[in-house]
Every structure is written in structure tokens, then in C-alpha cells.
Amino acid sequence: MSDRQISRFPLAPVESLPDDLREYVENVAERTGFMPNVFLTLVHRPDELRAFIGMHDALMMKDTPALSKADREMIVVATSAENDCVYCVVAHGAVLRIRRKDPLIADQVATNYRKADLTSRERAMLDFAVKVATDSASVSNADFERLSGEGFTEEDIWDIGSIAALFAYSNRMANFASMMPNEQFYSMGR
Amino acid sequence: MSDRQISRFPLAPVESLPDDLREYVENVAERTGFMPNVFLTLVHRPDELRAFIGMHDALMMKDTPALSKADREMIVVATSAENDCVYCVVAHGAVLRIRRKDPLIADQVATNYRKADLTSRERAMLDFAVKVATDSASVSNADFERLSGEGFTEEDIWDIGSIAALFAYSNRMANFASMMPNEQFYSMGR
Amino acid sequence: MSDRQISRFPLAPVESLPDDLREYVENVAERTGFMPNVFLTLVHRPDELRAFIGMHDALMMKDTPALSKADREMIVVATSAENDCVYCVVAHGAVLRIRRKDPLIADQVATNYRKADLTSRERAMLDFAVKVATDSASVSNADFERLSGEGFTEEDIWDIGSIAALFAYSNRMANFASMMPNEQFYSMGR
Amino acid sequence: MSDRQISRFPLAPVESLPDDLREYVENVAERTGFMPNVFLTLVHRPDELRAFIGMHDALMMKDTPALSKADREMIVVATSAENDCVYCVVAHGAVLRIRRKDPLIADQVATNYRKADLTSRERAMLDFAVKVATDSASVSNADFERLSGEGFTEEDIWDIGSIAALFAYSNRMANFASMMPNEQFYSMGR
Amino acid sequence: MSDRQISRFPLAPVESLPDDLREYVENVAERTGFMPNVFLTLVHRPDELRAFIGMHDALMMKDTPALSKADREMIVVATSAENDCVYCVVAHGAVLRIRRKDPLIADQVATNYRKADLTSRERAMLDFAVKVATDSASVSNADFERLSGEGFTEEDIWDIGSIAALFAYSNRMANFASMMPNEQFYSMGR
Amino acid sequence: MSDRQISRFPLAPVESLPDDLREYVENVAERTGFMPNVFLTLVHRPDELRAFIGMHDALMMKDTPALSKADREMIVVATSAENDCVYCVVAHGAVLRIRRKDPLIADQVATNYRKADLTSRERAMLDFAVKVATDSASVSNADFERLSGEGFTEEDIWDIGSIAALFAYSNRMANFASMMPNEQFYSMGR
């Protein structure tokens, strides 16, 4: 895969990163088995890379009783599909399959989460996330009440909305920069 | 203004912040004359506050020959208006009036930037930013060529798209959390 | 401000108007302190100017127990914002600030009336007006029942819908003719 | 046809109108062979009826070399169809068939004017009118240049846009008030 | 009417059809009094013509206690109007007028079925059909329950949805091929 | 997988089919290795199953110099993704991977064909197909000229539009009936 198949902007070498960031992305690459392209596309902007990693890990790398890591990945896939983002749907689809141990869920959620085999709690979570992604100006008390009724805490609701908001950022970055996912993501977890 | 008029989520005291963040927001408050509500709404999540500040300053606090700080604020106002975000339109409208030394521009750009009194370069910049904000999946080579033709460098184009992407995040946060701007913003720079 | 900054169509002199219209617009100019540009843009079409004034005053210059003049201006700002009309949002935003004695309301309603600090009655009024403005074909009995439940009479409901309809006309006129508001409107009532 | 099949608002008797308006609508009824329901629905608001008639006749009752009365009716049918307005499509469809001496044109224009058998001039006229009706905020110089290139004068362009704007008003009135056309209109001119 | 006024694709002679299809379309032409253009446009593709006739007759040529042939035509007119299909609105509008013995219904349903004079059962039927036509991905249990509540059987619901789906096909064929209806259809049943 | 996980309508046994249809679907099942659920969902309506198979095979089972079987599957995946149809995206995505011998293409085209690695010819083909799927009323001469310029014959253009139209039918059927794809499709050809 040539550079321009990863991003329409020039790629900088990982070695040019400040030590903390270089170590961070090399650790991820070691655990994953390859360096996710999203890191490569941001190397030329270390401050933006650091902020992205900070926001991502604060929202995605935790489990609460009502909002697992798999749930968080499902939010990413559902909202990224609304934004037609190839990078995020394919890469986070892979993580979702693995975290949920379900080879079918990512394609269902990416195509139409309303037809996926979900619980009432999961459906409420995705309805809220997709509303934040596509029509946040209309979010109202009724939306919050439905989530509370499904057992989500106020902090969980913040997380659901914030994950949808974070990937509103990521989807737009990946789309305008034509970032493409690593080939490995397509078949992981199937 | 009571807490719940600032955000529908509970506010934590600024004193609870790690020192670096506390000093940062207190410095902004001193320069501005008041503490912008956006900081207050994020105090309960210091990692997210740090990431937001990092991304914001990397993209908004620089000038390039073709993309001034005022231009960057204009991108925020135009894209935030598309997302009906009261906080961002009012607060960044104030900053735009001040940076551009123009008391009329913010209301024009917030209502319909196509009718504002703009140069061809500015119009191209906002057309691209609004496309990233509302239909990033359709961004194409022709969009990049128009910006290059107006004198924007590849790094400027990255900035224009990234600012639109960052405020896709901020607008959704402010909308679902019902963040409201400080009263002072409404009249600054008029 | 040159003529072409007021309208993309040629302006005729106020002196060319029939006496009744000339006196009317000069009276408004005297009370307001300046001649609103909307009148200037219509001088070349006296019959249309007369009809516009007739319709405007019949709907906007009255108070009923449930629908004040300030309420009527709020309808104009909310629906004109949906249509991205710079003239109507800025000029009627000024009148709204003055009639309601509230310097913040116009910017809130113009950006997202759902987040403005409104009563249940005001929210119902604007939901109906915006539905008439953007999707009148779907207005149904349930919409009328909600307004009745908030204390609006049948004649009030006619007024709410008619104001939204009248500014559907005005917004389109101002948009295709690129009418721009007088500079004074931007800061009135702040 | 009972009153409530004409409008969801109460009808006032024609006799209650001021003399000038009563004579006007009775003259129309005599020429047409029946009293068009639109007048009946406005009798309870004589000032609004007078303004509507004034605006309507100023824009619809004239011929210019490039914009005939039939052309004007075609604009009404095309834009009213975009707004799903039964009264205006049926009543002005009848007038269009008669003025153009063409029994097929109204149904074609009402369903999809892009597939109707039109000249390049007529197609440009309707493209502009429909843009004013549905997306006036985006009207640009290129739209004006296309009309000039087809032989329309600046005054004609004002008329095309104004007719679309006037029926933006009428369509919303008819839709929210559930005005229904007289049965005679359905078959006139076929 | 020349060939190119019937379809933008070349027409093959009816004589070139296999015997069963030729007899079928000639029988229809004899009963109707003329050969409907839709058959002419498909002669060059006999397998597609046979499939279309098979699907059409399976869904349109039956009566059930809750879903008459006139109801089925009303579904065609309402959904074809959403797709702006001149052929289907005009041709099936004619059949609807005849089957329902109502000269006004087709124009009402084609312009805005929500304003047509319909029963609660008919309104539910068209709301479902239009949802299948325009937003099938969102069809949910609540939509089925409303239809059951109006007395439709499970087989009827299949038919309503399938008719909307079949004309999703037909509308797109007629639109991209610019198929135009026979002149006779415009005035039949008025 | 239980019946209700295949369709929300009751399934009839394959044995109940007329001999020609039973043999047809059993042959497909033998070649594929399993019986595709789409057939099962249509067994209770043999005439509709026969028409669907007839139309499908007429359009999908042929190769022309400019329009291969893989191209035809790519049209199905791109247009079905616009309609959020889980069955068609997953099942035809599998066929596309196999026919094109490309394990990555289906996920790219299903998420955003504009970002997929396609030739100019393929991109023109999908732009046309998606326009027929989503806005067929606006198809114009310019759309045909672009396809001709890419080497498609008039018969190829008919096929591209017709495939988009056929799956407008299939997508709506699968969506309202909640048809779900066989598990095998998800991993075929990866």
C-alpha cells in the first residue's frame, strides 16, 4: 500500500514523533500486529495526534456496568456508518467483532442498526448516539429519560454523546483526507 | 446564571482540576475578563478538557499567510451555524468580531455566509468547511483544486478541514449537553 | 452603503412613490431613526409595497392576550433563521430584543430556538410556526390541539401560521434579491 | 360542500366584506362561473384579503414579451407542487390549462416539470422559481446569468422570483388551513 | 406522438414479442381502448416485460376484504407522487378514478394524500406505503401494529408494502427512461 | 436460525412450490451450498417469486463488454447501501467479492463508493445507479452523455438503471419484511 493510498496528505515518518507519542503508537502496533493507518496520517501533526489519543482513550478505554468497551465500539460503527466513513467503519467494525465476540454484528450495525439483533438497551444507546451524530440540535429531555429508563447513568450518557461527537470529528478527518484502513482490519474477528 | 443554565450535566469546581489545566483556564479567564462556560462544563472530565484544549490551540492559535486567526474563527461560526449550536455561534461570533475588527460579520456569517460580504478566497474557504461539516463523504479532488487555486497550501487545507471537524465535535457536545454561552459574549466587539 | 449593497435590483427614489406610501415609509423612518432598507428595495413596485405593508401590519401590529407583538417578532426570527435570511433575522432580531426587553433572546432563537429559555407556550408557538415554514403539508389536527392546549384561540393560530407564511414570502424576496439590513439593526436593543 | 370542507377555520359571509372587496370577488365569481374558495377562506380577514389580491394581481395579471400570463401560472403550479399544496395545484392547474390551451401541461408540471415538454426558456424559468421556492438562500449570480441568457429582463426575473415567493405564502396558508379547491377546477380546460 | 415522446430508448414492434406476451398486451389494449405506453417501452426486453406483468398482476389484480383494487391503485398514486413519476401518476390516477368512481381523488392523492378526504383505514394504508417508498429502513413494529389495528391482515400488509416496492421499481424505470403516458389517461374517469 | 430471524412474515415450505420454481431454488442452493433466505421469504407467494427470479436473471446473469457480472453486483451493493438494506448488502457483497476476486471491495462500496478504488468508468456507473436509486426524477441528458463517454452502450445504460430499479424493489421488500441474510454470506470471498 503506497502512502497516497493511506491519506491524500503527505505522511511523516513515525521516527519524527516526540518520544511519548512514538512509544504509544509503537505499543499499539505491537499489540495489534500492525500500525493502524490513522496514526500514520496524524504523524505530521503531533499536537493533534496527542489530543486525539487523549480524547479517544478517555472515552473508549473504559468499562462501566452499563456501557462496555464493546458497546462503545458499536456506537462508533453506527455513527460512522451514518457519515459514510470507510476508515472508521472498517477499523472499528473489526474491534467490535473482537470485543463482542460476534462475527456478524459489525456488518449489521454498519448497514442498518435498526435491523440488527439488539436488546432494548442497546437500541436506545444507538438511537441516542445517531441523533447526536446527525441532529444534535434536536436532542431533548425525552431522549435523556429514555436512556435513564434503560439503566444508563448520567456519566454513561455523557460518554455515549461524547463518543458520537468524537467520531463526528474522526469521520470528517478520514473523509476529507481520504484515509483508508489497513487491509488487515477487513477480516479480523470474522 | 445557575449551574443548570450552563450545562445539563453537573459542574465540578475549577479547583478540582490538575494544576496545569487550572492555570490554563484561569489565564484565559483573566485575559477574557470572565471564565468561558465551555471550560466549566468540562471540569468533571480533565482528560477530555486537556485533549480539547490541545486540539483547539493547535488549530485555532496560529496564523499562516493565507489563513489568519480571524479566518479560523469565521470557519467556526459558519459551520457551527449549520449545526444550530448556540454556544459556538455566540462565543466564537464574539471572537470573530474582535479578530476581524468588524461588528457585522458574525451575524451575517451565522445566518447565511453566502450573502456575507466576502472575498472569493473567503467564500471558497467556507464552502469547503461547510462541506466537511455537512457532507464530508462527498469531498472530492475538485474541492481541493478550488482551494489551491485560491492560494491555500496543503497544510492550510488540512487546517480548514480539521477546524470544521473539531467543531463537529464541539457543536455536538454543546448541543446534547445544552451548554449556554456567557452573557458577555453576546455584546463583545459590537 | 451603496445601492447594490442594499439589493441586487435597482433602487427607485422614495419621492417616486404615491403619496400614501411615501408618507407611510417616511413616518416609519422618523420613528425608527432611519429608513429600513426593505422599503427601499420595493419602491420600484408600489403595488407590491402596498400589499406587503398591508399584510405585515394586519399580522404584526396587534396584541392579543395570548400573542403579543414580541411573540410575533419571535416567530419571524425563528422561521427566518430556518430560511437563512440575513435581512429578516437581523432586522426583526432587533425589534424582538426591543419588544421583549431582552438582549439575548434574538441570537438564541436565531441559532436554535429549542435551546432558548422559553416557556412551554412559546415553544409550542415556535414549533408550529417552524412546521408551517418548513413542512406545511404535514400540519395535522395534533398540531392544532397542542396550541389550543396552551391557550391560543383559533384566531391566534391563524396569526401564528400566517406570520410564518408571510415571512416565507419575505425571506425568499430578501434572499433572491440579496437584500441587506441597515447597519443600525445589528446593535439595536443589545 | 360544507364549510369545513373548504377551510378548517370558520367562514364569514361575503356580505360582511367592505364594498370594494365584495365587488372585486363578486366580479371574479361572475367571470369564473363560481366563487373560488380562496376568497371565502379570507373573508374573515379583509385586510389580509386586500393585500393578497393586491400582490396577486400585481404579479399575475400582466404580460411581458418574455413572461406571459400562462408562464406565470406555470410557475405557480411547479412551485405549489413542491409544497404539496392541493388548492394551488388544482386551481392554478386549471388556469394554466386554459391560458396555455394545453390539456396535458398542468399534470406534467405538477408531477415533474423536468419531464414536461418545455422549451429551454421555460425550463430555466421553472428551475429558478423552484430554487427560490425550496432553497432561496443558495440563489447566486449564476442563476441570474442563466435567465438573462434566455432573454428574461431584470424586471422579469423579479417577477419570477416574486411569484415563487408569493405562493410560498399561499401554499402555507392553504396547507395549514386545509383549504380545498372548488370541484369545478378539477375538470376545467381538459 | 412520436417514439421518442414515449421513451428515450428505442421501441421494438409489438409483433416481435413471444406469442403469450403479444396476446396479453393486445388483450389489455383491446379492453382499455389503446395500448398503454408502458408495454411499448418494454417490448425490447421480453423477459423483463414478462416479469413486470407477473409481479403487477399478482399484486394489483386481486381484492381482499380490507384491500380493494381501488385501494391498491391509491397506493400506486401516492407513492409514485413521492417519486415524481409522470407516467405512473397520470396512468394509475386514471385507473384510480375509475375503480373508485371518484373524479377528484387522484389529483388530491397525487398532490398531498394527507389532505385528501380519506378514512382512518385508508390514511394508515398510505402512511405505511409512503414510508416503505421513502424510508423503508425505519419501518418498525409500531407501523405493523397500526395496520393490524385498522383491520389489515398480515397478507394485506405484505401486499401494501409490496405494491410500494414494485412501484419503487416502476417509478425509477419511467423516470430514467423518460416514459410518458398516453394522452388518453389524462382525461379518463373525470 | 429460527424462521422469524429470516423474515417477519411466516415461511412456507419449499416443497409447496410449483415444480419449476422448486427445482430452480434447489439448484441455486446446491451450487451455493445453502438455500439463500430470500427464496424462503417468497415461497408463500410463488407468482411473485417467479417474477423476481425472472427479472433478476434477465438483468444480473449476463455479461456485456462494458458491463460484467461483477459490475452488476457492484451496482447492487452501492444502491442497497443507500437504502440501508442488510440482506442485499451482505448477500450481494459476498457475490461481489467472489465475482471480482477482491476481498476488500464490498466493504468499501457499501460504506462509501466514492472513496473506493475505482476506475473512472466504474465511478460513472455507480454515480448513475445511485442517482436512479435516490433521485430518479432528476436524471437528465447530461447523465446519459457521461455514461456514453465512458463506453457504455444504450443497452448497458438500460441495464444499469434497471438494476438500480430492481433493487429499489428488493431493498424495500427486505427492509419492511426484516429479511436477514444467511450467516454464510458474511464471510464468503474474504
Give a description of the structure.
6 copies of one chain form a homohexamer. The first copy, chain A, is an all-alpha fold and 190 residues long. Chain A contains 10 helices and no strands. In chain A, helix 5 packs across helix 6 (105-112). The model of chain A has no long low-confidence stretch (mean pLDDT 97). The A-B interface holds A 8-10, 45, 47-48, 50-52, 54-55, 57-59, 83-85, 132-133, 136-137, 139, 144, 154, 158, 161-162, 164-166, 168-173, 175-177 and B 8-10, 45, 47-48, 50-52, 54-55, 57-59, 83-85, 132-133, 136-137, 139, 144, 154, 158, 161-162, 164-166, 168-173, 175-177.
List keywords for this structure.
homohexamer, 190 residues, mainly alpha, 10 helices
Topology diagram in text:
Six copies of one chain form a homohexamer.
Chain A lengths: L18 H14 L4 H6 L3 H15 L8 H14 L3 H15 L4 H8 L7 H16 L5 H9 L4 H23 L6 H5 L3
Helix pairs in contact in A: 3-9, 4-5, 4-6, 4-7, 4-9, 5-6, 7-8, 7-9
